[in-house]
Every structure is written in structure tokens, then in C-alpha cells.
Amino acid sequence: MENGAYPARPTGNVHVGDHSNGCLICNMEFAFDGGGTIFNTFWLTTKDGAINTRTIDTLKEIFGWDGADPFWLEDHASELAEIAVDLVVENETFIGKQDGLEHTALKVKWVNPVGGGGGNKIENSDRQALMSKYGAKLRAVSGGTPAAKKTTPPASAPAQATPPPVPKKAVLPSDMNTCWKALNEAMADKPRAEVEAKWFEIIKEVHDDKPQTDYTPQDWGTVMAKLKTLFDNLPF
């Protein structure tokens, strides 16, 4: 499979627990609409126990989780299988720990609302112990308020008037994969967490809260233009 974004759905195979490095994780299997499956690991905390709010917000937005009890994702696994998503995947090359040889595997980079191998090993799945460890922190971040459900306005509801767009300087069209690749190469010497943080910072600054799945080629062109103003070593 080539790098890109593909429609998919969870299979109902969901597991929550502690990783051996100390992070709380959720492994979720997805099935591509065209056939085949892939696991993604959602890193809910860092090694020191801090909450990964970006990941929490993603799971709340897509699946309607309230962000407080991660085992809700296990308990509602069959319901999650009804929710369509877009998976952004890339082929990654790595050196195998067992054989020392070079391998290439398909990895999930982003799980977005609609517009290899399995997940990381869970070392501890004890619900009571994990909720005692993370529950208060998760509730503090999420406020215990369920994520707002997406609703479709009635057909008879009048369309709200929107102000005319502010004219923007013309930019060349682009796409998400090109922008993401450019940022990764520009920050090749930085940790992945720092690259991801910069990505969301740029996205927020350029297009505020507009879903990435709704971006037009011109929107991505604006993101690329922003990247070019930030990095002198941009390869594109």
C-alpha cells in the first residue's frame, strides 16, 4: 500500500493498558475499506504520566469518548466499529531488533474524522490499578464532560449568513502528505513529539479549528507557504 489517506473503520479489537515504558496506551485495530487491517497505538500519556491532551482530544472528537475512563473504549468497541475514519499511513523503514536486517512496515501516522503489525505490547491491563493511576488526571483534563455529539441541522433551518472571506495572497496548491513530509525533513534532527507539536501549532495558526479532512489543495498550499516562512532548509 502506498503512503496516503485511506477510509477505514475500527474492527472492535481494542485493548487499553500500560506499556513497558510506563505510558498508558490504547491499541486499536482498523480495517481498510479496500481490505486489510492495521493496528494503531494511541499514546494516552507520556512516560512520566503526563496526559497527552492532543491524543485524548482526537479520541473524544472521533468516537464520542468523554476522556475520563479509557476502558470506555474497550467497553464500547463494538459501537466504535460503526464509525468511519480516515487513516493517514506511511511506509517506515527500520532495523529489526532480532535479525538486525532492514524492514519496511506500514504505520498509521494520523487517525482523522471522515471528510505494520499490531500495536505496541500492553504490559498491564488491570482496570482498577490503571484507573487509580490515571483516572484523576484524565478527569482533570477532560472535566468529565462528554464530547459534543455531531448533529445535522434540520433541512428547514435557514442557512446562516457568513461574512465574505478576506482576500489572501495566491499560493500554489499542495496536499497533506507533501506538507507533512516537508516538515519532517525540515525537522529531521528533532524528536517526533516535537515535530507533531509543531505540525498542530502551524495547522492551528493557519486554519484555526477547520478539520484537516475539509482542507482544499489551496488550504494545504497555505500551510506549505507557512512552512517556507519558518524553515530555511525546507526541501520543497
Descriptive overview:
The chain is α+β, with helices and mostly antiparallel strands. The protein has helices spanning 53-63, 72-75, 77-80, 127-142, 176-186, 192-207, 217-230, and strands spanning 4-19, 24-32, 37-43, 85-95, 102-113, 122-124. Strands 1, 2, 3, 4, 5 and 6 form a six-stranded antiparallel sheet that branches. Helix 5 packs parallel to helix 7 and helix 6 (192-207) crosses helix 7. It starts with a strand and ends in a 6-residue tail after the last helix. The relative contact order is 0.15.
Quick tags:
236 residues; 2 domains; 25% strand; alpha+beta
Compact summary:
This protein is an alpha+beta fold.
**C-alpha end-to-end distance:** 24 Å
Provide the helix percentage: 25-40%
Uncertain residue segments: none
Total of helices: 7
Q: What is the mean pLDDT?
A: 84
Number of domains: 2
Shape field: globular
What characterizes the major β-sheet?
A: 6 strands, antiparallel
Note the beta-strand portion.
15-25%
Radius of gyration over all CA atoms, rounded: 19 Å
Q: Look at the helices and sheets and give the structural class.
A: alpha+beta
Could you tell me the number of beta strands?
Answer: 6
Q: What is the H-and-E element order?
A: EEEHHHEEEHHHH
